[in-house]
Amino acid sequence: MATWDVFKELDNLRREIDEAFRGAGFGRPFGPTFLSPVTSRRFPLVNFSEDEGHIYVEALVPGVDPKDVDLSVLRNTVTISGERKPFVQEEGQIVHRSELGSGKFSRTLELPADIDPGKITAQCKDGILRIELAKAEHAKPKKIEIKLS
């Protein structure tokens, strides 16, 4: 027997109303509500890790042409920005649902160490932007020899 979840239904209704206002050129007209998620999602979603010599960032950018993505690094921050093109309805096509977001996006991450701006690589494959940032020499751990006295 299927159960009915009133909160799930209210959340779905809130999303549909938000989408209706967004389509009319408005954001959320009354700000966050008690039905809003506890945290707001940022786009693109990222994985962020490091080892002794590098910092790695993987960003999800499905459906975004890599030519429409800008990557910039300043000191210890990296910014990923770009634009996802809107869905284009073909003539004679009936759209039953259009949930993929479109528009401009920007995400800035503060890095845990300074990086070497000359040693940054980025590639985009299968909707995942992979960025490898080499840590600056002064930011890498140094092994210090301890002398016996």
Key structural traits:
149 residues; mainly beta; four-stranded antiparallel β-sheet; 1 helix; 7 strands
Describe this structure in words.
This protein has 149 residues and is mainly β. The chain is built from one helix and seven strands, in the order H-E-E-E-E-E-E-E. It has one helix at residues 6-23, and strands spanning 46-50, 54-60, 69-74, 77-84, 103-110, 115-125, 128-135. The strands form two sheets. Strands 1-2-7-6 form a four-stranded antiparallel beta sheet, with no helix packed on it. A hairpin with a 2-residue loop joins strand 6 and strand 7 (128-135). It is elongated, with a radius of gyration of 22 Å.
Question: Quick gist of this model?
Answer:
By secondary structure, the chain is mainly beta.
Give me the side-by-side strand order of the main sheet. Answer: 1-2-7-6
Q: Uncertain segments of ≥5 residues (pLDDT<50)?
A: 28-40
Largest sheet: 4 strands, antiparallel
Strand content: 35-45%
Q: What's the rounded overall pLDDT mean?
A: 81
The rough form would be described as: elongated
Instruction: Please write the string of helix (H) and strand (E) elements.
Output: HEEEEEEE
According to DSSP, the number of beta strands is 7
Structural class, please? Answer: mainly beta
Determine the fraction of residues in helical runs and give it as a percent range: 10-25%
Through-space gap between termini: 78 Å
Tally of individual helices? 1
Radius of gyration: 22 Å
Annotate the secondary structure layout.
Elements: H1 6-23, E1 46-50, E2 54-60, E3 69-74, E4 77-84, E5 103-110, E6 115-125, E7 128-135
Antiparallel strand pairs: 1-2, 2-7, 3-4, 4-5, 6-7
